[in-house]
Amino acid sequence: MTDTRTAIRVAMSPVDAKLQPPTPARGMIVRETLVRRLTAPDGPPVVSVIAPPGYGKTTLLVQAAAREQRPVAWLTLDSLDNDPAIMLSNLISAMDHLGPISRSVQAGLAAPSERILATVVPRLTSALHRWDQPVVIVLDDVQHLVDRTSLDSLTALIDHLPGGFRILLAGRSEPDLPLARLRVQRQLLEIGVRDLALDEHETGALAAAAGAELTPVEARTLMTRTEGWAAGIYLAALARVRGDISPDAPLSVSGSDHFVAAYLRSEIERDMDNTDVALLTRTSILDTVSPTAAAAVSGLDDAGERLRALAHGNLLIGEVGRDDASYRYHNLLREFLVAELERREPGAARSLHRRAASFFERAGNIDLAVAHAAAGGDEDTAARLVTAAGLSTFRSGQSGVIDRWMRGFAPDVFERHPSLAVLAAWFAFLNGRAEITDRLADIAERTTYTGPSGDGSASFESQRAMVRAIMARRGPQDVLANARLAVEAEGPASPWRPITLWILGSAHYLLGDVGAAEAAFVEADMTDERTSGVSMAILAKRAGIAMANGDWPAAEEFAARAHRMMVTGQHDEIVVTLVVHAVSARVAAHRGDVAGAREALVRAQLVRPMATHVVPWFAVDALLECARAYMAIGDHAGAQVVIREAEHIIRRRPELGSLTVELLDVRRRLASAATTLAGASSLTGAELRLLPLLPTYLSFQEIGDRLVISRHTVKTQAMSIYGKLQASSRGEAVERAIELGLLEPFYGLDLTRRSRPD
Q1: Does one domain contain both 38 and 145?
Q2: Can you give the residue range of the structural domain that contains 626?
Q3: Which of 393, 402, 529, 554 is deepest in the core (most CB within 10 A)?
Q4: Where are the beta strands (DSSP E) in 241-365?
């Protein structure tokens, strides 16, 4: 038998299993009429299959997928897909099995969840519009999807689906999607309980598959009493086969939970030994059950062989994959098993989740390890895992995953794990969340902790010194003191050393010592051989210093390296890219490429709302670079807006040394410059946050609900956007924003189809 303590090999990863339709079980009846409706080439682009558990929704989708002439992308949704980055990543992976998806689509997943709708979805729809043939997308278990951004992303995908494509949605309940609008537009085919109910011939066939041969009268009677409910028919037939019902007694089953549980309990108690029952109940905590995961969680070395044997004769255990199978339990069975686990082994679920967390940690699946640790009530293990994996996960371009991890922790967890609080503060800063960054930094300030940091840094004191330095709450001298403390603590092998050198160089710059600043930046550049957001910021700052010295060839080299690093590392949606875009714009303007400079400044606009007072010296420095770039191309209105934002930050953090002097200098130059009309470059941060929602079919009230502002505020901001983009309507404003590069293009956009006025 496999020893899971020494050899971990997940037969099929949980993500891969989500992308595979279940293997059709032997004896399953073919729903011929429904399959024809679902696969009709001229049918509506959206199909919903909504019914309670046990009506054969997934079976129908599997049969339709097998009959489809078009390629089929399959995704089984679960609660993790309420992170829009995960849902879209899984969907992209499903599509990528059918044809290559542009790297830029994947890169958009690094964006904070607030910007996912503006990056990934339009890029994905654009990629699909370029495909040679249409595709069918199957989304099973759609009832799990409740996150508003995930639902809005799916809505946008549906609204901009290329011709010939189709989306099949199946679930227990109708998802919060605009199905009413699609219904009115005749873009929706709905399959419900009445359609899925088996007729008497299908009832007889399903009973036969379970081993019970019924007469036509018996089949009709069973169909009537179960109202065609497939699971009820199957369970009643099993009862006949087992002898629980005499051959002469009428077959019946109730759809209530009590009777379903009674049938299932009777089945496992009669036909399974205690070891099989323990295997099923203990592994019911897993969404997808691989042989190795089953062995680790259940404690049974022969779990894989037992699973295969159980699946062979039970239609409620579905096989996923063909070569190296994993399994999924039917929702009815899984819910029963979870309840049965509590009845047989009270309180065991928590320890089983912890076993699963340990297994997935050893297997290298930190995401599932964190999820199971949290489900097992082991927040300390979840905190340890996230602290250890945070920096490397960020370096791999998965800032959205980190964001979800951090949002999953209760406030008291950060109090108990100050190293986690420091790490979370870093990521909140990178995603532009000022209030959260302040709150987490406050936790670090009032905490005394002497244990290991857990994130690769030398100590908690070093971690806290870095946070104190970047937030600059006590002026430049305090920034320098804390930067020196961190540099001394983090040796050459520390993954945090380049960050400490960046902070040290920035501290010297604030104090006017440009030579010392440049020396620290050079050392950091030599130390950091990996792509990171801080490396980009360092190179961009070196470009700014080179420009100030008149060394434009060096500035161009540094700016180009920073830009390449941003693209390669998929870090184009975090706040530090603001300064990368700004210096790229200045370099382009210097060589006479006004169009290139404007393009870089548009990219800067998209991340500019993230630049806040929480890291004031970075935000002000980046905004000053933007202002200089705007002035270089004669856009003084754009420069005025960013200078006002920098001044707002300095009012909150007035002690910023040399940057305060530089700000006054730029302000004086602007005062003597010719006035220009406000245009797209003068969009405020609030307007830039609203802009990505304008291409959707959301009303102003719905947009307000998303942004937690009033409908009146949305309308006021929208009118301002229209004026600055020289547009007279929402649709025209969107078109203009796309032309300028402020929005990704949505193929097939037609705002005139919105069902409700703003």
Answers
A1: yes
A2: 530-676
A3: 402
A4: 317-320, 326-329
